[in-house]
Amino acid sequence: MALRLLPFNMFPQILPRFTVPSKSLTVTINLPSQRSTILSAVLRPAAFALNIPGILSDLWESVLRAVPKKKTSHMKKRHRQMAGKALKDVKNLNTCPACGQIKRSHVLCQHCVGDIKRQWGKTQLA
Amino acid sequence: MAGGAAKYRHLSRSSSHRQALLRNLVTSLFKHESITTTWAKAKEAQRLAEKLITLGKKNTETSRRTALSTFYTPHEILPKLFGPIRERYADRPGGYTRVLRVEPKKDDQAPSAILELVDGPKDIRFAITARTVARRRDKGLETLDGITLMNVRKVTQFRKDGVEDLEREISRVNLDGGEGRAKVTKGGKKETKREGEKGPVIDQGGKELKQ
């Protein structure tokens, strides 16, 4: 009987977190003999529950401390993600020979194109 | 690059979608003589448009059928293609269309361009060259700089009565702008003056900027 009971009582030692009152265990086994209760009292996980979590708590502390303390703010995140993606200066500029305003080189002057299109529109209407 | 050099732009479309797009573009081009789209679409539509004008110049039964199956409104455009456009480009050895970059028109700032039929009524390079020459004459400069000379040559080379057309356009610009007198000289004279004066023109631009 003692042999049979042992594995059940060993459980709390392996997993000290799931500590169940030993009394309830004996009830479920349906063998409420005097000896088994004594055994269970001897092998009560209380002793281990004090020792093992003592070691574990140090480990847990160090693991928990490796986590960011604060949420990264919107500003910080945007600054990080937009780094090196700033707009470039437009340097390829010259003056339009037809109107004298500034235009991008290799691109038609938008003022002239607009003017000409407007004139074409007028002549079409007329 | 994996897959080798692309022979044409896929324009992020399936074959049928792309074909439909290009047919739409060239139909609009021949209808309006000039269209504004993104630069990549303009370059692809330009290929097709040049081929269609070649068909127009061939003017055979086969070419008529091919053109008929390309346009979406063939009965509107075929008489034009096999009539005025064929005559306009009879002497021109290719290069019937022109793609000019313009400032982005679309919301996504995609590079835009104007695709136009050369020497047509909506030839924007012709109009801008006329304005350039008019402005220079208004300043009292009779000579033209290198690039303007090149543009004048391009615009008048194969155009019927090209020089006269350009002079008329220049005088019209002067009248419209109302800036100074319309100084019309003989067009031939302008082309003989081949002193590409790039330096002074750039200097003037700089002065204007400072003012």
TrEMBL record, chain A:
Similarity annotation: Belongs to the bacterial ribosomal protein bL32 family.
HAMAP family: Ribosomal_bL32
Protein name as annotated: Large ribosomal subunit protein bL32m
Native source species: Aspergillus cavernicola
Keywords, alphabetical: Mitochondrion, Ribonucleoprotein, Ribosomal protein, Transit peptide
Pfam families: Ribosomal_L32p
Cellular compartment(s): Mitochondrion
Keyword Ribonucleoprotein among UniProt keywords: yes
InterPro entries: Mitoribosomal_protein_bL32, Ribosomal_bL32, Ribosomal_zn-bd
Keyword Cell inner membrane included in the entry's annotation: no
Chief place of localization: mitochondrion
From TrEMBL, chain B:
SUPFAM superfamilies on file: Prokaryotic ribosomal protein L17 (SSF64263)
Pfam families in alphabetical order: Ribosomal_L17
Record keywords, A-Z: Ribonucleoprotein, Ribosomal protein
Gene3D superfamilies xrefs: Ribosomal protein L17 (3.90.1030.10)
Region entry Disordered, spans: 174-211
GO cellular component: ribosome
Biased composition (Basic and acidic residues): 178-211
Family membership: Belongs to the bacterial ribosomal protein bL17 family.
Protein name: Ribosomal protein L17
Lineage: Eukaryota, Fungi, Dikarya, Ascomycota, Pezizomycotina
